[in-house]
Specification:
By secondary structure, the chain is α/β, with parallel strands linked by helices. The chain has three domains: about 130 residues, 2-Layer Sandwich (Gyrase A, domain 2); about 140 residues, tRNA modification GTPase MnmE domain 2 (Four Helix Bundle (Hemerythrin (Met), subunit A), Up-down Bundle), CATH 1.20.120.430; about 160 residues, Rossmann fold, CATH 3.40.50. Helix content is about 40%, strand content about 15%. Helix 7 packs antiparallel against helix 8, helix 7 packs antiparallel against helix 14 and helix 13 packs antiparallel against helix 14. The two termini are about 25 Å apart. It binds guanosine-5'-diphosphate and magnesium ion.
Length: about 475
C-alpha cells in the first residue's frame, strides 16, 4: 500500500469528544486535520503573566493554558501532536478540560463554529488507516480492544493489535519480495542456461514462504474472533419499555423466565440475553438496565451503587453492540441525540396522545427508525425486518426448508475473510512452486506470485471494499 496523506484527509478537520460522556475529572476533545494548529491558537491563551496570545507550540508536547469557548475560560491541558508523527498522521490536538458535560458541549460548539466538523464514529482510526499509519489487521485490533468485555478478550485484542496477523503478513511480504526479486534477476539470464538460476536458493525461499503462510493460517484460525453471533442491544432510559420489547421479540422462542417488567424505574439490574431468529439470521438479543439521564445527576459517587454498576454494565454492552436499538418512550422526554448511532425504536405508540413518529432531529442522528408498541405488538414485524436489513441478513426465501443462518459477528466475518484470502494465497504460491518445479518459463512463475500479493493486499486492506471499511470503522465509537 502506498498511501497518499494529502488525499486521505480530504482537507477537512474533524473533532469529537473522546472521553466517556457525563461528569468526570477530565473530558477530552480530539481534533485532527489541517486546521488543528489554527483552532488551538484561536481557542486558547497561555497562563503566564500577560500572555494573552493563543498557544502556538513549536513542537510536539503538553502545554497548559486557558480554553475560551466564547462565553468564558477554563483551564486546559493541551497535547499537540503535529503530523505525520500522530495517530492519524495529520496535525492532532487534544484538549483536556474539566469533565463537565455542558463545558464539553460549549467547547465542541466553539470548535465547530471555527471550522471543524463533527467526526463520524471511527473516523480518526479510518484516517490513520487511509494515511497508512496502520493496516486493516491492526485497525481490527484497535476495534477488538475497545470492544473487549473481559481480560481474555483484551489479551486476544492486544495480540491482534501488536502484530497478530499483521506482523505475520509483514514477514510473509518480505519473503515474497525476496522470492520475486530473485526470480526477476534470474529472468535476465538465458532460459536454457539453467546453471545461472539459483535453483537452491529459490527452492529454499519457496519452502520458507509456504511455511510462513501455513503458520499465519494456523494463527488466524486459532485466535479468538469474538462472540459467535452479532449482538443487538436494547438500550435507553429507564421505563422506555426495553424489557417489554425484549419479551415481545423473544415470544416466538418462549422464555420460561421472561424479563421483569414494571412501572417502577430500575427494574432491570442485570443484563439479560437470549438467542433470537430474524429471517435467515440469528442474533443475541440483550436487555440492559436504563442508561438514560440519571435519576439523580448530582449523585457523584453513583458508580459504587447497584444502579451505577448496572448502568456501567449497560454501557459496556452498548459499546460492544453490533447494533443498538435505542428504545424511547414516545410519551416521555426524548434525549438530544443518540450515541452511538443506532436504530431508533419509538415505543408505546398505543398510548393516547403519543405521536406516531419520532421528532425529525432525532431521526437524523439514527440509522433508521420504527414506531412500535411493545405491549400491543404493533410494528414489531417491521422492526424485525429493519434489524435484519441493517445486519445484512437476506429475507427468508418463501417456502424455504431448514434455514441456514447468516451473520456471525463482524470479528468472525473478518476472520473468515482473512482465512479465505490466506487459502487463496497458498493455492497461488503452490501453483508458482509447481510451475517452477516443472521448469516453466520464469515469467509465468513470477505472474503466479503476483496472485499471492493480491491476496495479501486483500488482508491488509488496500483492496478492501468501501462497504466493508464502512462497516468496520462505523463500529468504533465516537472519538476513536
Ligand atoms: N402502554 C404501553 N406501556 C408500555 C409499553 N412498553 C412498556 N410499557 C410499560 O412501561 C413500563 C416500563 O416497561 P419496561 O419494559 O419495564 O421498561 P424498561 O425499564 O425500559 O425495561 C411497564 O409498566 C410496561 O408495562 C407499550 O408499548 N405501551
Ligand atoms: Mg427493564
Amino acid at each position: 500500500m502506498d498511501p497518499d496523506p494529502v488525499l486521505a484527509s480530504s482537507g477537512s478537520t474533524i473533532c469529537a469528544l473522546c472521553s466517556a460522556g457525563g461528569r468526570a475529572s477530565r473530558g477530552v476533545i480530539r481534533v485532527s486535520g489541517p486546521l488543528s494548529g489554527e483552532l488551538l491558537e484561536r481557542t486558547t491563551c497561555g497562563t503566564q503573566g500577560a500572555a494573552q496570545e493563543g498557544l502556538k507550540p513549536q513542537s510536539r508536547g503538553v502545554f497548559e493554558g486557558q480554553f475560551n469557548d466564547g462565553l468564558g475560560t477554563c483551564p486546559v491541558l493541551v497535547i499537540w501532536m503535529p503530523g505525520p508523527g500522530s495517530y492519524t498522521r495529520e496535525d492532532v490536538v487534544e484538549f483536556h478540560l474539566p469533565g463537565n458535560p455542558h463545558l464539553m458541549q460549549a467547547a465542541l460548539q466553539r470548535l465547530l463554529k471555527l471550522g471543524a466538523r463533527s467526526a463520524e464514529p471511527g473516523e480518526f482510526t479510518r484516517r490513520a488507516f487511509e494515511n497508512g499509519a496502520l493496516d486493516l489487521t491492526r485497525a481490527e485490533g484497535v476495534l477488538a480492544l475497545i470492544e473487549s468485555a473481559n481480560e481474555e478478550q483484551r489479551r486476544a485484542a492486544s495480540a491482534l493489535l501488536l502484530g497478530g496477523l499483521g506482523r505475520r503478513m509483514a514477514g510473509l511480504r518480505e519473503c515474497l519480495d525476496d522470492l520475486r526479486s530473485l526470480l526477476e534477476a534470474s529472468l535476465d539470464f538465458d532460459q536454457n542456461d539453467t546453471g545461472h538460476v539459483p535453483e537452491e536458493e529459490l527452492e529454499a525461499l519457496f519452502q520458507r514462504a509456504l511455511e510462513k503462510l501455513h503458520a499465519a493460517t494456523h494463527w488466524e484460525s486459532a485466535r479468538d474472533a469474538g462472540p459467535d453471533l452479532q449482538r443487538v442491544v436494547l438500550a435507553g432510559a429507564p421505563n422506555a419499555g426495553k424489557s417489554s420489547l425484549y419479551n415481545a421479540l423473544m415470544s416466538c422462542a418462549p422464555d420460561p423466565m421472561p424479563a421483569l417488567v414494571d412501572p417502577l424505574a430500575g427494574s432491570t439490574r442485570d443484563v439479560r440475553r437470549g438467542e433470537l431468529s430474524l429471517g435467515r439470521g440469528r442474533v443475541t438479543l440483550i436487555d440492559t438496565a436504563g442508561v438514560g439521564p440519571l435519576q439523580n445527576p448530582g449523585e457523584a459517587a453513583l458508580s459504587g451503587t447497584l444502579d451505577g454498576r448496572a448502568q456501567e454494565r449497560a454501557r459496556e454492552e452498548v459499546q460492544a453492540a453490533d447494533l443498538v436499538l435505542w428504545v424511547l418512550d414516545g410519551g416521555a422526554e426524548v434525549p438530544a441525540h443518540l450515541d452511538p448511532p443506532g436504530l431508533l425504536v419509538w415505543n408505546q405508540i398505543d398510548r393516547a396522545g403519543v405521536s406516531q413518529e419520532p421528532p425529525e432531529g432525532l431521526i437524523r442522528g439514527a440509522r433508521g427508525w420504527c414506531a412500535v408498541s411493545a405491549q400491543e405488538g404493533q410494528g414489531l414485524e417491521s422492526l424485525r425486518k429493519v434489524v435484519s436489513g441493517l445486519l445484512g441478513f437476506a429475507p427468508p426465501a418463501s417456502g424455504a426448508g431448514p434455514q441456514s443462518s447468516e451473520g456471525g459477528s463482524l470479528g468472525r466475518q473478518l476472520r473468515a475473510r482473512h482465512l479465505d484470502a490466506l487459502r487463496s494465497a497458498r493455492q497461488a504460491l503452490a501453483e508458482a512452486h509447481q510451475l517452477k518445479a516443472q521448469a516453466a518459463p520464469l515469467d509465468l512463475v513470477a505472474e503466479a506470485l503476483r496472485g499471492v500479493s493480491r491476496e495479501f493486499d486483500a488482508i491488509e486492506g488496500s483492496s478492501t471494499s468501501e462497504d466493508l471499511l464502512d462497516r468496520i470503522f462505523s463500529r468504533f465509537c465516537l472519538g476513536k
